[in-house]
Amino acid sequence: MNSRSPSTAVVVGSGPNGLAGAVVLARAGLDVTVVESAAEIGGGTRSFVRDGLLHDHCSSVHPLGAGSPAFAGLERHGLRWAWPDIDCAHPFDDGSAAALFRDIDRTASGFGGDGRRWRRFFGPFADDGDDAPRDRVGGEQNHGVLYDDVFGPMLRVPDHPLALARFAMRAGLPAMLLARTFRDEHTRGMFAGIAAHAATSLTGTGSSAPGVALIAAGHRNGWPVAVGGSRAISDALVAELSAHGGRVETGVTITDFSRIDADVTLLDVAPRAALGILGDRVPPRVRRSWSRSRRGPAAFAVRLVIDGDIPWRADECRRAGTIHLGGSAAQIAAAEADCAAGVLPARPFTILTQQYLADPTRLRNPPDQVRHALAYAHVPHGCSLDGTEIVLGQIERFAPGVRDRIIDVESVGPAALERFNPNNVGGDIGGGANDLRGLLARPRLSPDPYATGVPGVYLCSSSTAPGGGVHGMCGYRAAHAALRARRR
């Protein structure tokens, strides 16, 4: 790694953020090398085949990825999205379920008297990206308030101030307060379940923000899967990088910045790992902020192989790619509060995905009756308890008899998630706490939170704005910040 030239870049880490940042730099003409300590690229976007079934290791459904500017143009490298009939279903204990569709009118029609309010709350942000993109300073384009302002640093002059103000009026509320503005429990539960994706207390200020953003993105782009597994995203990013002369080296671990010789460096690692790499080069003010960065609750994942379809009581669940297992809004809020307090809930909020409904290539060829699903529950950070039974219990709660159909179960707890990807510290797959402080100061309060204080070095992991999820925007924005600095 001593092939220094006037325009070289090194990206440490090949998760979707690192690869997205590498693509931006390569398109700008830099000679880019991505180094990855694992034997396989992709971070959270890795997939594997077992017994003829295609499984995703971590990320599985991508409501924030399908419309992301960081992934624009990857279709030419084979990236394809596929949608189930119902994007998300939210079952209740009485056997009924709420349904979320890409079409906002179809969704709202299922919410009865709450339908008009649902359209008014979320419709403007779902539709704001329909205008033709316009070039802006720095080579970026206009993608509407959602991707230009919401999916970026909060301490900056917004591109769409009025639209962002409207978004903030909703997003700044506690999720449970916004949920209570709806009359029907089905609408309340659906919103609470989507807000709970952030794995944070639903009574805190700003806890509505992730829910509003996910709903808006969903009505704009749906909740699709990547055909051929989530690895198709990282494969397409690498193909685009290679098309611009970039390269990836696996099995290379960077623990000392002296090993890097480049004009620009992006670090797709957690803040404390970045401190270990950069050492005393990091200014004290940045070091203090990074040292205070906090992690969120953990995930406990369970992969299931099932003889036939899951016997859901609600028909909507049989057609949905994503299913929220949490019950009422109050039950979800109580479970999330337990996690935030370090207590393992008896009924943790659990998200289950049935990717094969949208992408049949994930099944055996020729297809038989064997199905598979990925479920993960929110548990306390660093939890060492085996959560398999409580996750299965949540599935059985809404699909009685499912245990009798299970062929194989594989559980992946917080410690295993961290071993698989060191950025998942303590099993936190979201890059850090998502409370108000975590949303505003990610990982520190700054108009350029990607800058490390070390010239030419930028942090681009999900610990930076806009945070967790497979959208590549952390790397995309960090790379553009690096290019702006070079022009100055």
Task: Describe what this molecule looks like in 3D.
There is one protein chain. The chain has 488 residues and is of the alpha/beta class. The chain has a single domain (8-295, 421-487), classed as 3-Layer(bba) Sandwich (FAD/NAD(P)-binding domain), CATH 3.50.50.60. Helices cover 33% and strands 17% of the residues. It is built from 17 helices and 16 strands. The chain has helices spanning 16-27, 104-109, 115-127, 144-150, 161-171, 175-179, 185-195, 209-221, 231-243, 271-278, 284-291, 315-318, 329-340, 388-398, 414-420, 436-440, 473-487; strands at residues 8-12, 31-36, 47-50, 53-56, 81-82, 86-91, 97-100, 225-226, 247-250, 264-267, 298-307, 320-325, 350-353, 370-379, 406-412, 457-459. The protein has a seven-stranded mixed beta sheet, with helices on both faces. It has a five-stranded parallel beta sheet with strand order 9-2-1-10-16, with helices on one face. A hairpin with a 2-residue loop joins strand 3 (47-50) and strand 4. Helix 4 crosses helix 5 (161-171), helix 5 (161-171) packs across helix 8 (209-221) and helix 7 (185-195) crosses helix 8 (209-221). The longest helix is centred in the last third of the chain and has 15 residues, at 473-487. The radius of gyration is 21 Å and the shape is globular.
